[in-house]
C-alpha cells in the first residue's frame, strides 16, 4: 500500500488527538495485544508529543490466554489478580486516559468449553466493575481502536496469503476511520458535527417508544422520559472531549429496563470473547429475554445470558444507517467495534448513565428508579439491515418514521 507509514502515523495521531484528546501532563494507559507492539510504540510517541506525563502499556497475549483455558484447573479460572483491578481504579482516580487496542482472534476459543469461557468472563467482569464504571459513566477519557492480527485478517479474507490479508485489513481500517482522507482530524470533526445534528433532532422529538420491523424482527423498545441521545464525542468529568469508538457511525440512548417486547434477529455474527455466535434471535417479554435461538454458538449465548441476573435485559439502543462506510465495505469484520457501526444494534446488560439527563451524577438507586439496567457486562449485537423500518412513537401516541429501508427517514 502506498503511503502506508504515513497512514499509520495518522492513525496513531487520531487515536491520541481525537480518540483520547490527551491533555498536557495527563497519564495514559494503553491496553494492547502483544502482536501490535510496533504500532503501540507509534501511539506512545504521539502521546508524549501531545503532552502526556507518563504512558503505561498493558500487553496481553492470546496464546497465554488459550493455555490458561486448556491447562488451568477450574478453581484457577475463578481467580482474577485484584492488584491489577485495584491498579486500574487508582489510575482512573488520577484521570488517566485509557486506549484499548482491540484485535482479537475471532475463533481463538472455538474449541474451549463454553462454561469455562463463562466463568472467566464473569470473574473478570466482576473484578473490573469498579474501573469499568469510570468508563461507562464517562468520568475518564477512553477510546477503542483496532489493528490487524493474522488470524483476524484470515477470517475476513479467506484464501488470501497472510501478507495480503493483513494488507487488505489495514486498508479497510484506514478507510473506515477516515485515515486516508485529506486532513483526517478535520474529517472527524465534520463527521462528529453531522452525527450531532441527528442527535439534536432525536432529542427534540423525545420519542416514548421505538418500533422495529424487518425480516425476523418485530420489536418495541420503550425509552425513559429522561433519556438523551448521544453520538461520537463525549466529555469527561474534567471537561475534556473524547471519542470512545473509532470508527463510529452511531447515535444511541438507553431503553427502559422493563419496556422491551417482541422478537429480534441478529444480522451479523457476534464475536464474544473469541467465540462466534451467529444467526441468533432473542424474544423479549417485559424487558427480559424469555427465549433464544442460535445456529452457531448456542451454548456460548446460553452462558452469556446467565452471567448475572440483569444481562437478560437491554442497556443500549443504537441507530446506524445501512448506507455508511463500514456497511458499504461489504465486509463482515467479526469484530464488534466495526460490525456494530455497520448496523443498528442493541446491547444486553449495563445501561449507560450518561444517556440519562444528569445520569452520571445519580446514584445506582436513582438510575434504577428511572429504568436503567445495571449489569457487570455490556454486549452489543447487530440487528440492522437493508429492510429495517423504525417508527418513533411520541407521548401523544402519534407515529413518525425514523428509519426506512435501513436508512434515516429524515
Poorly predicted segments: none
Percent strand equals 15-25%
Average pLDDT, rounded to a whole number, is: 96
Rounded to the nearest angstrom, the radius of gyration is: 20 Å
Helix content: 25-40%
Instruction: Quickly count the helices.
Output: 14
| Amino- and carboxy-terminal Cα gap | 38 Å
What is the 3D shape? globular
| Total strands | 19
Number of domains: 2
Largest sheet: 9 strands, antiparallel
Notes on the protein architecture:
The relative contact order is 0.13. With 410 residues, the chain is α+β, with helices and mostly antiparallel strands. It is 35% helix and 24% strand. The two termini are 38 Å apart. It has two domains: 4-176, Thermophilic metalloprotease (M29) (Thermophilic metalloprotease-like), CATH 3.40.1830.10; 184-408, no CATH class. It contains 14 helices and 19 strands. The model has no long low-confidence stretch (mean pLDDT 96). A hairpin with a 2-residue loop joins strand 12 and strand 13. Strands 5, 6, 10, 11, 12, 13, 17, 18 and 19 form a nine-stranded antiparallel sheet that branches. The protein has a four-stranded parallel sheet with strand order 2-1-3-4. Strands 9-14-15-16 form a four-stranded antiparallel sheet. Helix 8 packs across helix 9. It has helices spanning 4-20, 37-49, 62-71, 74-77, 82-93, 114-127, 129-136, 150-156, 162-176, 184-205, 298-304, 325-328, 336-339, 364-370, and strands at 27-33, 54-60, 97-101, 142-145, 209-214, 217-222, 234-235, 241-242, 251-253, 260-265, 270-272, 275-285, 288-296, 314-319, 345-349, 378-382, 389-393, 399-404, 407-408. The chain is globular and about 55 Å long.
Amino acid at each position: 500500500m502506498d503511503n502506508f507509514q504515513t497512514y499509520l502515523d495518522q492513525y496513531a495521531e487520531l487515536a491520541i488527538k481525537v480518540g483520547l484528546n490527551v491533555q498536557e501532563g495527563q497519564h495514559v494507559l494503553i491496553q494492547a495485544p502483544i502482536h501490535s507492539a510496533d504500532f503501540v510504540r507509534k501511539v506512545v510517541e504521539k502521546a508524549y508529543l501531545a503532552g502526556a506525563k507518563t504512558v503505561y502499556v498493558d500487553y496481553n497475549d492470546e496464546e497465554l490466554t488459550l493455555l490458561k483455558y486448556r491447562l488451568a484447573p477450574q478453581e484457577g479460572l475463578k481467580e482474577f489478580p485484584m492488584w491489577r483491578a485495584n491498579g486500574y481504579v487508582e489510575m482512573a482516580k488520577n484521570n488517566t486516559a485509557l486506549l484499548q487496542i482491540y484485535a482479537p482472534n475471532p475463533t481463538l476459543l472455538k474449541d474451549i468449553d463454553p462454561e469455562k469461557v463463562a466463568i472467566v468472563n464473569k470473574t473478570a467482569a466482576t473484578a473490573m466493575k469498579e474501573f469499568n464504571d469510570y468508563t461507562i459513566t464517562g468520568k475518564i477519557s477512553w477510546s477503542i481502536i483496532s489493528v490487524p492480527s493474522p488470524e483476524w485478517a484470515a477470517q475476513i479474507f479467506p484464501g488470501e496469503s497472510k501478507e495480503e490479508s493483513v494488507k487488505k485489513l489495514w486498508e479497510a481500517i484506514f478507510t473506515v476511520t477516515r485515515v486516508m482522507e485529506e486532513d483526517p482530524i478535520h474529517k472527524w470533526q465534520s463527521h462528529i458535527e453531522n452525527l450531532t445534528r441527528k442527535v439534536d433532532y432525536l432529542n427534540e422529538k423525545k420519542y416514548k417508544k421505538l418500533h422495529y420491523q424487518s425480516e425476523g424482527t418485530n420489536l418495541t423498545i420503550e425509552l425513559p422520559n429522561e433519556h438523551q441521545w448521544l453520538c461520537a464525542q463525549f466529555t469527561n468529568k474534567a471537561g475534556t472531549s473524547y471519542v470512545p469508538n473509532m470508527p463510529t457511525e452511531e447515535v444511541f440512548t438507553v431503553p427502559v429496563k422493563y419496556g422491551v417486547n417482541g422478537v429480534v434477529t441478529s444480522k451479523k455474527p457476534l464475536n464474544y470473547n473469541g467465540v462466534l455466535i451467529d444467526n441468533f434471535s432473542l424474544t423479549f417479554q417485559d424487558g427480559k429475554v424469555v427465549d433464544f435461538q442460535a445456529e452457531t454458538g448456542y451454548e456460548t449465548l446460553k452462558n452469556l445470558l446467565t452471567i448475572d441476573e440483569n444481562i437478560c435485559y437491554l442497556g443500549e439502543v443504537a441507530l446506524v444507517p445501512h448506507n455508511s462506510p463500514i456497511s458499504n465495505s461489504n465486509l463482515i469484520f467479526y469484530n464488534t467495534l466495526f460490525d456494530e457501526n455497520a448496523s443498528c444494534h442493541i446491547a444486553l446488560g449495563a445501561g449507560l448513565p450518561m444517556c440519562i439527563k444528569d445520569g452520571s451524577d445519580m446514584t445506582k438507586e436513582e438510575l434504577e428508579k428511572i429504568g436503567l439496567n445495571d449489569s457487570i457486562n455490556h454486549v452489543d449485537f447487530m440487528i440492522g439491515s437493508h429492510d429495517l423500518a423504525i417508527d418513533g412513537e411520541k407521548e401523544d401516541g402519534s407515529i413518525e418514521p425514523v428509519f426506512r429501508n435501513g436508512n434515516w427517514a429524515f
